[in-house]
Amino acid sequence: MPDHSQAAIHLEAVELTLTSNAGQVNILRGINLLVEPGESVGLVGPSGSGKTSMLMIIAGLERPTAGHVGIAGQAIEAMGEDDLALFRRSHVGIVFQDFHLLPTMTALENAAMPLEFAGRDDAFERARAELDAVGLSHRLDHYPGQLSGGEQQRVALARAIIAEPSILLADEPTGNLDAETGRKVMDLLFDLKERCQTTLLLITHELELAHRCSRLVNMLDGRVIEDNQQRRSA
Amino acid sequence: MTSLALAWTFARRELRAGFSGFLIFLACLALGVAAIAAVGWISASVVGGLNANARDLLGGDVSLRLNNRDFNTQQMDWLMANTVRQSSAVEMRAMAAPVAKTNGNRKRSLVELKGVDSAYPLYGDMVLDPPLVLADALTRQDNGTWGTVVDKNLLLRLGLDVGDRVRVGVATLTITATIVREPDRVATVLSLGPRLMVSARALGDTGLVQPGSQINFQTRAVIAKNTDMGVWQERLNAAFPNVGWRLLMPDQAAPGVRRFIQRLALFLGFVGLTALLVGGIGVSNAISSYLDGRTAAIATFKCLGAPATLVFQIYLLQVLVIGAVGIVLGLIAGAALPTVVLSLLADYLPVAPEQGFYIKPLLVAAIFGLLTALTFALWPLGRAGKIPAATLFRDKIAPSGLRPGKSVIVASALGVVLLAILTVATSSEKYFALWFVGGALLTLALLRLGAVALVAGAARMRRPKGASLRLAISNIYRPGGNASSIIVSLGLGLSVLIAVALIEGNLNYQIKERLPEKAPAFFFIDIQPDQVAEFDQTVTAFAETSGYKRMPSLRGRIVKIGGVRVEDAAIAQHAKWAVHGDRALTTSATMTDGSILVAGKWWPKDYSGPPLISLDRNLANGFGIGLGDTLTVNVLGRQITGTIASLRDINWRSLRFDFAIIFAPGPLEGAPYTHIAAIEAPAAIEDDLEEAVASRFTNITTIRVREALQAASLILTGIGQAVRGTSLITILAGALVLAGTIAAGQRRRIYTSVVFKVLGATRAALLKAFVLEFGILGLATGIVAAAIGTLTSWAVMVYMMQTDWIFLPGVVAWTVTICLMVTISAGFLGTWRALSEKASHHLRNE
Predict the structure, then answer these.
(1) CB of A148 within 8 Å of any CB in chain B?
(2) Residue B583, strand partner residues
(3) Residue B400: pLDDT over 60
(4) Euclidean distance between the first and final Cα of chain A, in Å?
(5) What does the alpha-carbon distance between residue A163 and residue B547 come to, in Å, rounded to a whole number?
(6) Contacts of residue B481 in chain A, CB cutoff 8 Å?
(7) For the domain that residue A92 is a member of, what is the CATH number?
(8) Are B375 and B285 in contact (CB under 8 A)?
């Protein structure tokens, strides 16, 4: 049996079934996926294909109905909620389409949060540096409502990367941005990925963006229907 | 379609969603309205009970009372000629002692002795147990003694039964029955002893009716039907212009009880108003929260061409509809509650309350409710109407801090003024109502100031090390934070509770701790001048006694102040007690021990000029008079006008007896007077001392101060519990607002928790942060409320009650702890729900 303990992401026969008023809905149907450290994976597929659900399972925000989920060498499917939070703190950074910044906190406070939770004394110093790195040093004390969409997503990027996670998950990070702003944000995302040598899993509807990744995974109806591993060298 | 009709159409459509977002609004308003309505209703039904039984309580259509002197022939002739029936009664205090069945029963009791004629009672029925006719019960019995009927309480005190004998004065009486109902006796707040009733002839045989003794002579009469009472009274006054009697008509029956009920209702009404004020904050929060949720709808209205006025009207109409529902719910509860409360209080009420439907308290409560809802709703409504659509879309994220339009600000201010006017106008005592309005405004301002200081302090604070504490502190000053509404709403109720608890604690401390320390053991009244030497010898013969003091005393009524009739004089609230009925006076050539002369000079020992008076300085201030002014006093029908020669500071709290009015020797000479005395004695010799006095001086009444203080303490505790219980309503209102605030912030709290969890925060850390946040808010609220409550209690004790004040840390600590527990529990419950939310639902792309 091959050893996948060093894999960044290792999903094996992962299933997710949710119960709704209409009965049981199979969201994921036996997903197998192996992502090595440093890879960038573009996850594509039509709406409802299970991309976001898979990302949630990888982030430990959703619990699989069956299967094994190994992230950064740790099996997380049996972890408790608090252990998962601690796990995310050290290993996972997430960027959402809707940014999910806290509206009552300034850009600096939003970015510093992960390190604050980790009890780091240098949380704000590091947040300042990360915001500077994404070009927002002049917006530190602004609230999200005072920032443009692109600026908000850059704060979210700084926040995702601040704890130097080994895995960066991005769920359609340009979905709410215009083409030009989206392109700039993606440039930044890939720059950060390179700088931090992190593994990237990017959900997107835009094939052009997906092709910037080293590998392309296509999903349909809760299954991986295509895994273009040949691009790994890209 | 007019603008208002259009607004109503849209308001109706919006209301289709139901009232679920307005539960706190409804509860806050209903609670305040219910409290005001219930207090008003209860007060009206008790006063209604007094009015319905007015003739019974008064003992006739008219009651005339003279102190220390009987009605003369001329007066009685006039009354007989001008009334249908008359009845005379005499009331005084006396000592009753058992004629011992066994040797060694040394028990004695102070009694309220009443001698009645055969016509008594003119109205109502005297009910006895066994059910004898009063005349038979009071007539001379087979054993040759007069019969007497007594309160059952006296039998218990003296260990006697019906059929036993009791000695009063020099007479021996046989107890023939106990009193079940005495129609003209109101359960007074402070009664020194149980009733002992005898016939007028038996009273004469007691030997207690002596010149100068403190005796009330009463004549009650039935007046012919259809008599114009006003004209009748004018004729009486014309026939006897300067008698100095106290004349009461049915609408003035039981004036002391009426005053007590009205004042208690006044303060409980203020508590209800405070609850409504707190509820007003809840109303404001609920509307803000509702409008937050309607931001998109408002923006859409505006985008589609709805002017600000229309938007304002749409939501104002909704507030009015929901407000009306809340008010109606409050009125229903307010009308239903009295039935329960009155049945619980039945044993403590002076008269049976009058059942009925009292529309006035309901109307007053409804108007208060409507005004409060409008005043507190206008600000958030005006804000929503004023802000442009684009700002509305962003308002939730970056609060605009915009103010509503000028007209709305003016209308809000007008609402506050109208509330103040209504409070004063509907209050039975404008003086207290003005204090309440001022106090409420000041309290609100101080609480708001406290909230601003806390937020500013939290914002300026250096970031603490722990992440949870850092989060807790930053949550306090973040935009959209709820520090202000929690501190103001909960703080207002808590301030009232702390003030009430501290006032009650202070009064109890005075009565239980301070007064007994320095109070004399006994007061003796009705010592005849010829008994003085023997009495002095008797009481001072006890070596353990000290502080013996005796002075002559007679009673008189102040009829003119500075030449102006008392009825027309402007008298300050704190001095009004001195013109309610007769006051004790004395005459002295020399200044009494312990007196502090603060103005003028004491008269020479051998002074024999025109009447001079030395007056209590506080009373002089209250009357608005000073040195050189005059005071006219009616003493036994004679009007004596004296010039104020000096002012004294009197410490009434010392319980050393003193006199507010002291005449220079001369004008009062010849008037029949008695002496009063006080002496300090250890508890161990109290019985012996009482026995020594009682066995030698049957006419002298002994008042045990310790017992009187215990009775007062018991009453005070009862009143304190009632007021404190009612003031819990304000805390309930505050808790409702707190619940509303937490509910309104729940969506935001869930979202925050989810994002925190995504970023690696554990549930314990989050819980700690939220609990710390609410703990800090609770502590801050407690501290500010403690300061305000303490300040209020100090002002009430020192300025209104003119007594000492001490800080009682236990009372404050207890109430602040409750506040802390309430906020932390509320925060904990709200947060717990937020923490159990599943993250993935909230993070999927919309």
Answers:
(1) no
(2) B556
(3) no
(4) 28
(5) 83
(6) 104
(7) 3.40.50.300
(8) no
What does the mean pLDDT of chain B come to?
84
Which amino acid makes up residue B139?
T
pLDDT digits (tens, 9 = 90+) for A150-165: 899 999 999 998 988 9
Q: How many domains does chain A have?
A: 1
Contact between chains at A89 and B760 (C-beta distance less than 8 A): yes
Of B575, B670, B557, B667, nearest to B612 (Cα)?
A: B667
Helix boundaries (H) for B478-627: 483-509, 515-518, 532-540, 617-623
Which structure tokens are listed for B771?
């609990």
B752 to A94: CB separation less than 8 angstroms, yes or no: no
Q: Which residues contact B75 (CB under 8 A, 6 or more apart)?
A: B240, B243
Taking residue B153's Cβ as centre, other Cβ atoms within 10 Å add up to 16
CB contact B398 to A (< 8 Å): yes
**Distance between CA atoms of B638 and B582, rounded to whole angstroms?**
14
A88–B contact, CB cutoff 8 A: yes
User: CA-CA distance, B122 to B719, in Å (whole number)?
Assistant: 34
- Nearest Cα to A91, choosing from A199, A165, A35? A165
Structure tokens at A99: 């940014």
* Buried/exposed A87-106: b ≥16 CB within 10 Å, e otherwise: bbbebbbbbbbbbbbbbbbb
Length of chain B: 846
> Which string of b and e fits B561-589 if b means at least 16 CB within 10 Å?
beeeebeebebeebbeebbeebbbbbbbe
Say which residue the tokens 């009748």 belong to: B232
Among all chains, which residue has been given the structure tokens 């300085």? Answer: B617
In one-letter notation, the amino acid at residue B216 is: N
Q: Cα(A160)–Cα(A147) distance, rounded to whole angstroms?
A: 18
Residues near A48 by Cβ (< 8 Å), separated by ≥ 6? none
Cβ-Cβ contacts under 8 Å for B673 (sequence gap 6 or more): B212, B529, B552, B553, B554
Greatest alpha-carbon span in chain A:
54
Contact criterion met (CB < 8 Å) for A117 and B755: no
Contact B502, B811 (CB under 8 A): yes
Is omega for the bond preceding B121 within 30 degrees of 0, making it cis? yes
Q: Say if pTM beats, i.e. exceeds, 0.90.
A: no
B345/B349 Cα distance (integer angstroms):
6
Q: Are B787 and B821 spatial neighbours (Cβ–Cβ below 8 Å)?
A: no
Q: Which domain holds residue A128?
A: 38-60+79-233
B769: nearest CA in chain A?
A117
Cβ atoms within 10 Å, residue A141: 10
Chain B, nearest residue to A142 by Cα: B398
- The pair phi, psi for residue B517, each rounded to 5°, is -60, -45
CA B284 to CA B282: how far, in whole Å? 5
Q: What is the pLDDT of residues B504-518, one digit of tens each?
A: 888 878 777 766 666
* CB spacing of B465 vs A124 below 8 angstroms: no
Among the partner-chain residues A59, A88, A116, the one whose CB lies closest to the CB of B470 is A116
DSSP B592: P
Interface confidence (ipTM) of the complex: 0.78
User: In chain B, whose CA is at the least distance from the CA of A111?
Assistant: B759
List CB contacts of B421: < 8 A, sequence separation 6 or more.
none
Classify residue A10: in a domain, yes or no.
Answer: no
* Rounded Cα distance, A93 and A89, in Å: 8
What tokens were used for B767?
């819980």
Beta pairing partners, A199: A167
Q: Which secondary-structure segment (H or E) carries A146? A: none
Residue A39 near chain B (CB below 8 Å)? no
Average pLDDT for B782-804: 85
Structure-token pair, residue B626: 């000073």
3-state class (DSSP) for residue A92? strand
CA A183 to chain centre: 18
Are residues A146 and B398, on separate chains, in Cβ contact within 8 Å? yes
Give A142's pLDDT tier (boundaries 50, 70, 90). Answer: very high
Query: Do the domain assignments include residue A19?
Result: no
